[in-house]
Design brief:
Elements lengths: L14 H13 L23 E5 L2 E4 L4 E4 L14 H13 L9 H12 L5 E5 L2 H16 L3 E5 L6 H4 L11 H4 L2 E3 L5 H10 L4 E6 L11 H12 L2 E5 L11 H6 L5 E4 L10 E5 L1 H4 L17 H16 L2 H22 L6 E6 L2 E6 L8 H6 L2 H16 L1 E2 L3 E2 L7 H24 L2 H4 L9 H4 L5
Parallel strand pairs: 3-13, 5-6, 5-7, 7-8, 8-9
Antiparallel strand pairs: 1-2, 2-3, 4-10, 9-10, 11-12, 12-14
Helix pairs in contact: 2-11, 3-11, 7-8, 12-15, 14-15
The protein binds pyridoxal-5'-phosphate.
């Protein structure tokens, strides 16, 4: 699927993007609906803010500028934007309607598909977003165990149960909720054990992202499995980002550790809004109890179910994950080679996994800029300059990289050529001590992951 390279116009503007931001700022608190899509996450004045259309690995902003996509809409796009098999399945379903007074048969079909491909899935319940199913997982675990405390690590969404323990982002959450959420460190089994010691017989669940950017070390996932079994707690993997991305059966298949419950959303339907809680019959069965309540009008919309069926079927029939692993590894290795060649490897690197990695800059880079003192982060200034240069050249760099089945060798080569030029600018700016002067827009704000205290 070869396409021409993004054409970068010398009179590139972002006028329409900026006009939309002006209008939204009067109407929409925070301007965007999604934390990571807020204009402050980008170099305001240079970066686009609104995307009009996308196809395969490419995006076009509202001013007609074309980009190679690196971020896959924060994860939902696994096969590529507007992927034909998914678009056709949804279009066909639309002719028959999407919401009915009773369930559509696809509801059973997609549950059966999930049970076939996801190791922990003996029963399945659908919802719309990642938040819905992570929060449902906590409720199921509490109902199943009759305990209250949730031991957690990683980002699981905005609901109170997840943010209660985050002192930077707990506005609007009663203090008492925080008594039942306890955080631990990834790869630190003792930090999890301490929560069990502090709350004897009251920890309902260990809820964790199975993997972040770092590898699980020293059998960490196996140790979580053993600890949960020993203590009678429910082990929950939040696979909202890793599900269908690391493997068709998620990170639990990739790492060979099966949780009691797992949460899926993003890549499950290649961009259509559907999520699922999957898990063992024993734990999920509590939802059949008379006093357990969960209901959602839109949970079983047939268009999203059709998208999920098509997206999962493509993954079963084609080597989607092999392709993503190959293109991701080429990008990661290519970037790290460039950083080494330009003698920047001590301040920037691609880290993580080919299916999901991050390209970032160390916080303590000395740039000599006044903003460093105000902001405490030379890294953010350098990242802003790198982003500015990438966006101008047609690569929609955001930091996080989520390659898709539609990324071609040509996309990888183009992206690496652009990254080479961006790193050359960074290198010159660091040498001259004029990083801040070269930044033509605003410094990027803290990422959602930084604000929520995540390590990625
Ligand atoms: C691991 C993880 N869990 C939960 C969520 C929340 O999902 P959503 O934004 O679909 O509600 C996200 C979103 O980024 C996520 O990455």
């Amino acid at each position: 699927m070869s396409r021409g390279l993004p054409t970068v116009s010398s009179d590139r503007t972002i006028d329409r993007s900026e006009a939309l931001v002006d209008r939204a700022s009067e109407l929409v608190p925070g301007i965007s609906q999604t934390g990571s899509k807020t204009p402050t996450q980008f170099v305001q004045g240079v970066s686009p803010t609104h995307i009009e259309r996308a196809k395969g690995s490419r995006l076009w902003d509202v001013d007609g500028n074309e980009y190679v996509d690196c971020n896959a809409a924060l994860g939902p796009i696994l096969l590529g934007h507007n992927y034909p098999a998914v678009t056709e399945a949804v279009t066909e379903q639309l002719q028959d309607g999407t919401m009915f007074t009773m369930e559509h048969p696809l509801h059973v079909e997609v549950a059966e598909l999930l049970a076939e491909v996801v190791p922990c899935a003996e029963m399945v319940k659908f919802a719309k977003s990642g938040n819905d199913v992570t929060t449902l997982a906590a409720k199921v675990a509490r109902a199943h165990t009759g305990r209250d405390v949730i031991a957690t690590q990683g980002y699981h969404g905005w609901p109170d149960v997840w943010m209660a323990d985050n002192e930077n982002l707990n506005a609007g959450i009663p203090d008492a909720v925080g008594d039942y959420t306890e955080s631990f460190e990834y790869n630190d089994i003792e930090s999890v054990e301490r929560i069990f010691e502090d709350h004897p017989d009251d920890v309902a669940a260990i809820v964790t992202t199975p993997v972040n950017l770092e590898e699980p070390e020293d059998g960490f996932l196996e140790e979580l499995r053993d600890l949960a079994d020993r203590e009678g707690a429910v082990l929950v993997f939040d696979e909202v980002l890793t599900g269908f991305r690391f493997a068709i059966g998620g990170a639990q298949e990739y790492f060979g550790v099966t949780p009691d419950l797992a949460c899926f959303a993003k890549a499950m339907a290649n961009g259509y809004p559907i999520s699922a809680l999957a898990g063992s019959r024993e734990v999920m069965g509590v939802m059949n109890d008379d006093d357990f309540f969960y209901s959602m009008t839109y949970a079983g919309d047939a268009a999203s179910l059709a998208a999920a069926k098509a997206a999962i079927t493509v993954q079963r029939e084609e080597d989607v994950h092999g392709h993503i692993a190959e293109k991701g590894a080429a990008l990661m290795e290519g970037y790290n080679d460039l950083a080494a060649e330009l003698e920047l490897a001590d301040v920037t690197r691609a880290e993580g996994f080919p299916a999901r990695f991050s390209i970032g800059f160390d916080d303590d880079i000395g740039t000599g800029a006044p903003t460093e003192d105000e902001d405490g982060s030379g890294g953010r200034l350098v990242r802003s300059l790198f982003m500015q240069e990438a966006h101008r050249r047609g690569v929609l760099y955001t930091g996080s990289h989520l390659p898709t089945y539609s990324h071609t060798d040509q996309d990888v080569e183009f992206t690496l050529e652009v990254y080479r030029e961006c790193l050359e600018v960074v290198s010159e700016a660091l040498e001259a001590g004029d990083v801040a002067e070269r930044l033509e827009g605003d410094l990027v704000g803290a990422t959602l992951r930084e604000r929520t205290g995540e390590n990625d």
